[in-house]
Amino acid sequence: MIKVRNLQYKVGTRKLVDDLSFEVKSGELLAVLGANGAGKSTLMKLLCREIQPSAGHILLHGVDLDSYKLAELARTRAVLSQHNTLSVSFVVEELVMMGRYPHFDQRPQEQDLKIVQQVMEETGILHLAGRDYNTLSGGEQQRVQLSRVLAQIYDTQKACLLLDEPTNGLDLLYQQQIMELARSLADRGFCVVCILHDINFASRFADKILMLKEGKKVAYGHPIEVISCENIHETFSIKVKLMPCEGYSCPLVVPATVGS
Amino acid sequence: MSKKNGLILLLLLIFLLVVVVLSSCIGAVRISFSELMSMFSYYTGLSNTARFQDQQAAVFLNIRLPRVVLGLLVGAALGVSGAVIQGLFRNPLAEPGLIGISAGATLFAVMMIVLELNFFRALLGALGAYALSIAAFIGAGLTTLIVYRIGMKNGKTNITSVLLAGIAINALAYSFIGLLTYMSTEAQLRNIVFWNLGSLGGASWTMVSTLLPFVLVPVLVLPFMAKALNAFALGEAQALHMGINIKRVKFLVIILATMAVGASVAVAGVIGFIGLIIPHILRMAFGADHRLIIPGSALLGAALLCLADLVARTLVAPAELPIGILTAIIGTPVFIYIIISERNKRHIP
């Protein structure tokens, strides 16, 4: 589980992340929402220890993030970044195997080979195994990257998964598939943090939502508590309507038309 | 996957051995294969009968063999450095020359030839014939250090800044080289030109033994960076997320590549295109896995440079072509072919 206490990140005098506290338990999916420049990506970088906080703490399974060794951290949490371009092309299977790098020294073990196969099956990319990554479509590439990330923590109990806009640039089917996969991973006991743009996706798949504006917390809690016209207006500066939706406890968010 | 890599490396090694035998046999003094084998068994103590002429043995041991070995070392150094530099900079067009290694070495060598400063004279007194090599090596190290420092901010290396700094330092170094060339006398000019074109002529066992550690350490250590450089292909942040110590990888790769290339430029002058093309050929044929590309580039670089030197010294015999010219003449069309075929490959959906 991830526990964040009074987290702050400053560049000069500007606070990109300002006094954030929240926690994500194992088995939970936290969606982070916010406008562009709200500090979502900075928060993500802090969570994956790419940058150091100016103040506050991040605890991973009760231990300060800083005290993890690099390889140990890599076996505990995996990160799917927003931009994934390859400088030289790899075959899909080799790329997924890279996820196992923290687990073996020079040669992959039997366990690694097995996990790579399992993960590819689970994400539905087994038929792409021998393909050249650079010849795949955007949706296929994203699924391959997700498989790689998943392979990294597949056999770790209560691992953490950090996803930075995993549905970006994908069509509706792939968006849905990726989110369903993220949800199923949370249900399996992973602790998942996911930056999203789609509020309805967030309320549909997440256990908790964190809304950010200018690095500060606007709202944090269960979707049903957080999704309100006021919060959304505060976060995104847009006017919306809430519409009850059959079968869901949380209402759908739709743009309010001009003049209404 | 690794079985396939092992087989490819074995084939490359066999190719290398064939090239070594060819280079040993062909030349001004001809040595047949059976004579070569006889020399081998005679000098390794396997046999007491010498079925070859003394003159052949003298030429082989004192002139040809050191030249072949020097070619192997320089080729391996250039190949392996090209492979890791391309991997580190995530740019298949990168080569050791791009971050100023060759330019720095050349600048210092030219300074040494033209300026005859007290510092260099003292160096010459202390080191004799090696002074030029040492000066070139210092130059390579210094420019790389400057480029690396410019590219560094808050303890982090920005690869793009390093590349841009490399271009700037290259331009600066070459303008100084131009200035020095302009100032030089006729004799100095010939010396500079010869050095700039690259040559394995004048190879000796002492040159080989000076170069050996500078090439052997990188060639043995760099293959262990293979996993890390594979991860770098995804991006620096992604490599970090995968538990790679990116700071250490960057430092080691740059230091070891400078060591190998600086030392080989120092003994053989500037030999272009080997570092750029060898990794490309391997990637096109066998994929991008650095576990194959790094050791494979060392083997193929050694073999091809040795082969190029064989051509350079036999094509216009008894004269010699500068090997740097030869590698550029062969290398450029190959490179253009690679660019075109890669471009075409990208368009297949």
TrEMBL record, chain A:
ABC transporter domain spans which residues?
Answer: 2-239
One example GO MF annotation: ATP hydrolysis activity
InterPro entries attached to this UniProt entry: AAA+_ATPase, ABC_transporter-like_ATP-bd, ABC_transporter-like_CS, P-loop_NTPase
Task: Enumerate the UniProt keywords alphabetically.
Answer: ATP-binding, Nucleotide-binding, Translocase, Transport
What SUPFAM superfamilies would the database entry show? P-loop containing nucleoside triphosphate hydrolases (SSF52540)
What function is annotated for this protein? Part of the ABC transporter complex HmuTUV involved in hemin import. Responsible for energy coupling to the transport system.
Per its record, how is this protein called by name?
A: Iron complex transport system ATP-binding protein
TrEMBL record, chain B:
Q: Provide the primary localization.
A: membrane
Among CDD domains, the record links this protein to:
TM_ABC_iron-siderophores_like
Its GO CC terms? Answer: plasma membrane
Q: Where are the transmembrane segments?
A: 68-89, 96-115, 127-150, 162-183, 203-224, 251-281, 293-312, 319-340
Q: Does the keyword Cell membrane apply?
A: yes
What UniProt keywords apply to this chain's record, in alphabetical order? Answer: Cell membrane, Membrane, Transmembrane, Transmembrane helix, Transport
Q: Which Pfam families match?
A: FecCD (PF01032)
Membrane topology qualifier: Multi-pass membrane protein
Identify the domain of life: Bacteria
Molecular function, one GO term: transmembrane transporter activity
Q: Which family is it part of?
A: Belongs to the binding-protein-dependent transport system permease family. FecCD subfamily.
**What name does the UniProt record give this protein?**
Iron complex transport system permease protein
| Protein species of origin | Pedobacter nutrimenti
Question: Taxonomy-wise, where does this protein's organism fall, top ranks first?
Answer: Bacteria, Pseudomonadati, Bacteroidota, Sphingobacteriia, Sphingobacteriales
